[in-house]
Amino acid sequence: MSYWLFKSEPSKWSWEDQKKKGAAGEEWDGVRNYQARNNMRAMKLSDKGFFYHSNKGLEVVGIIEVCKPAHPDSTTEDPRWECVDVRALYDMPKPVSLREIKANPKLAKMALVTSVRLSVQPVTEDEWREVCRMGGLDPAP
DNA sequence: GCCAACGTTGGC
DNA sequence: GCCAACGTTGGC
């Protein structure tokens, strides 16, 4: 099991939008960055991820699960771009803000802090547990 | 709205 | 293959 973090601008695709898709989930399409795509290629079914609101909100608001492994991105003809499908699993009882993450020394190496522009990033197991704990999910799912 | 960081493009 | 120019992301 690996852990990830997905960024989305809530004005484009919000946690509410994601939850409306229910168990069927939805493509995480539109990624046009090789590193982010490679991360999605590395994902396995039922890997977990944080859903993070960028631009507005700036907080981890929920947890999603990979429900379909990498496949061609339906929003482009360009065969280079692939994406996974994800579905909403849980709300964060207490959303975890970027400020809190930056203020926590245990999370100083999170890609969210060090690779500001990477939209799909890996999360270590320790980081996963810590952010879940901060968000009121203890034990971590 | 600004701008730093950084990825991509294209001329040489 | 280098690197300047340019475009985009995303925090502030």
UniProtKB/TrEMBL annotation:
<dbReference type="Pfam" id="PF01878">
    <property type="entry name" value="EVE"/>
</dbReference>
<dbReference type="InterPro" id="IPR015947">
    <property type="entry name" value="PUA-like_sf"/>
</dbReference>
<feature type="domain" description="EVE">
    <location>
        <begin position="2"/>
        <end position="134"/>
    </location>
</feature>
<dbReference type="InterPro" id="IPR052181">
    <property type="entry name" value="5hmC_binding"/>
</dbReference>
<protein>
    <submittedName>
        <fullName>EVE domain-containing protein</fullName>
    </submittedName>
</protein>
<dbReference type="InterPro" id="IPR002740">
    <property type="entry name" value="EVE_domain"/>
</dbReference>
<dbReference type="InterPro" id="IPR047197">
    <property type="entry name" value="THYN1-like_EVE"/>
</dbReference>
